[in-house]
Specification:
The chain is an alpha/beta fold. It has 17 helices and 27 strands.
Length: 573
């Protein structure tokens, strides 16, 4: 009977996962508009509902769109034109969201970078994206001032995390942190957020640019196939496609719901799944600029989010928080895990925890990458098989390919995970070689992403991730490439050789550990150790910094003379 069912299903469905969807749910129609226009259209009858919640200071969609329009006018008043790149170096604050949509409204491009990036990383990003304006959180100004003159940025807008805080919190922030933060003197090249916004009040020309789904909306960042920093170009259509997919897989999310936005905006998961997707469904986004695992219980009990997306480290924090014992989670509709795979034992442990706390949902895993605008597969429509990452979202296709023959693998056999669909990026910015290494057009003209990840598909079209081909660590949900850390350390004049591996961490899952060999004649001293550590802090983002630095006379080598990383990993075990 099972064999007969398989034959029938093969005739009836184009893809094995189609059986999980109704006929009208299998594909999506991506609107030919900007992110801003799609968001406004989806909320035209929802203007008095809450859009953003920041420390319990709430902003309606009506006010939100008003602020976006004012920011768009301010941008135009300062000379920003369609196609220009504006870099947003911000934590999760209302100003960051407002600026993001305002940049999109005028047809410009938002380059999203980590506010904890090192000086040289900020400089590299500003130069390679040809940014002309920088909107940055005040905490990053000390680094910005050192490199800004080497870029094309002619205007910097400084934002404080307290700008949108309720008054008492604003005062508290200033007393405890704000007064210690170095900020520039106000000038024509350095503006503070409120001064910047006020310049939009007298700008009377139209600001809405006619924009298509194929126009670049945002630049995000990843290591590509080599680990070197890459500027990933995503279009309006890429991101709006995820919002359209969300309409199908989250049919009961509406303006009475809220999403906990603890994942940052410069991370594709944070921007698309925690902000744009929920807002397009009419839900509000609870903005958390800095996540504290020890206060996770208070976040949940204070805000009662119905939609909780996170990376595995977030759910580690949930399990280990001693104050969660009596917390009732019956208000939670969806618990989503992405950014890295969750082991089966940990998955079962989280599910047990959620059930004990009256949660309506098991944890649901997804799989994707920045190059595919975040989620590609998801345990939707009853496809959340334990240990799997679900089925392709509507409009997406996944195949498992033999890396040598390029042929599709049979069901339940491991190969490279390849992805096609409306969320696939057009490419890396100004990098044809790296783009061609990851994107491939088949004989039907369809573009496929070669992920560099291994997995398999069962007879129902459910995908199982097994391992990564490329050397990559996942640190608190962020991709960290050991080769990039090695390259930075090797540029230090005292270093002869370096090898970086990942070691287990109780909360971050993995952290880098660096093995360093110094040049001949240089002795290991505290001064040298501190010098190399300080060099890393200047040139690497905080989440990339090695947890440990080990100095040795030599490193183990393979038969062909390369650093033997497996041997280093064995030593750690």
């Amino acid at each position: 009977m099972k064999i007969f069912d398989k034959v029938i299903n093969k005739i009836k469905y184009k893809h094995p996962w189609d059986k999980f969807y109704k006929k009208n749910e299998r594909n999506i129609e991506v609107p030919n508009v900007s992110l801003y226009e799609h968001l406004k259209e989806k909320n035209k009858d929802n203007l008095d509902s809450i859009a953003l919640n920041y420390f319990n200071k709430k902003m309606t969609f009506r006010y939100f769109f008003g602020e976006i329009n004012l920011c768009a006018k301010a941008l135009r008043s300062q000379g920003i034109r369609p196609g220009d790149v504006v870099t947003i170096c911000m934590a999760n604050t209302p100003e960051a969201i407002i600026a993001f949509y305002a940049v999109n409204k005028i047809g410009a491009i938002a380059n999203m970078i980590h506010p904890l990036s090192a000086e040289e990383e900020i400089k590299y990003s500003l130069i390679t994206t040809k940014s002309v304006m920088l909107i940055a959180i005040n905490l990053s100004y000390k680094k910005v001032k050192e490199i800004i003159d080497d870029t094309d940025v002619y205007k910097t807008v400084i934002v404080s995390p307290s700008d949108s805080m309720p008054m008492l919190l604003k005062v508290g922030y200033y007393v405890t942190q704000g007064r210690k933060v170095e900020v520039p003197k106000k000038s024509e090249s350095n503006l503070f957020w409120n001064d910047f916004m006020s310049r939009g009040r007298n700008y009377n020309d139209k600001v809405l640019a006619k924009t298509s789904k194929d126009q670049i909306a945002v630049i995000l960042h990843s290591g590509g196939t080599t680990g070197k920093p890459k500027n990933i170009v995503l279009t309006n259509g890429n991101i709006n496609a995820v919002a359209k997919q969300a309409e199908i897989i989250f049919p009961n999310i509406n303006n009475k719901d809220s999403a906990l936005a603890v994942l940052p905006l410069f991370h594709c998961f944070g921007l698309v799944v925690c902000v744009h997707g929920p807002l397009c469904l009419g839900a509000n986004s609870i903005l958390i600029p800095q996540f504290d695992a020890k206060r996770f219980d208070k976040l949940l009990t204070k805000y009662h989010p119905t939609f909780v997306p996170g990376v595995p480290t977030l759910f580690e924090a949930l399990l280990t928080n001693k104050y969660m014992d009596k917390v009732d989670l019956s208000f939670v509709k969806y618990v989503i895990s992405g950014g890295d795979s969750l082991s089966v034992p940990k998955n079962e442990e989280v599910n047990k925890f959620l059930k004990q706390h009256n949660c309506q949902s098991n944890i649901i895993q997804g799989y994707g990458m920045t190059e595919t605008t975040g989620p590609v597969t998801f345990g939707a429509m009853g496809s959340d098989v334990l240990g799997s990452v679900g089925i392709p979202l509507p409009g997406n296709e996944v195949k498992i390919e033999n890396m040598e023959t390029k042929e599709s693998m049979p069901f339940n056999e491991i190969g490279e995970i390849c992805i096609s669909g409306p969320t696939v990026m057009p490419g890396y910015l100004d990098d044809e070689k790296e783009t061609n290494d990851i994107l491939e057009k088949d004989d039907k003209g369809k573009i496929w992403v070669h992920t560099g990840d291994l997995g398999y598909m069962n007879e129902d079209g459910v995908i199982f991730f097994t391992s990564r081909l490329k050397r990559m660590l996942i640190v608190s949900g962020y991709n960290v490439y050991p080769s990039h850390i090695e390259e930075v350390i090797m540029q230090h004049e005292a270093v002869l050789n370096c090898g970086v591996i990942g070691i287990p961490h109780p909360y971050k899952i993995q952290v880098p550990k660096a093995y360093i060999v110094l040049n001949n004649g240089i002795k290991v001293t505290n001064k040298i150790k501190n010098d190399i550590k300080n060099y890393c802090e200047k040139n690497l983002a905080k989440y990339m910094l090695p947890k440990e630095y080990v100095f040795r006379e030599s490193l183990p080598k393979t038969m062909i003379g390369k650093v033997d990383y497996r041997e280093l990993e064995k030593e750690n075990k």
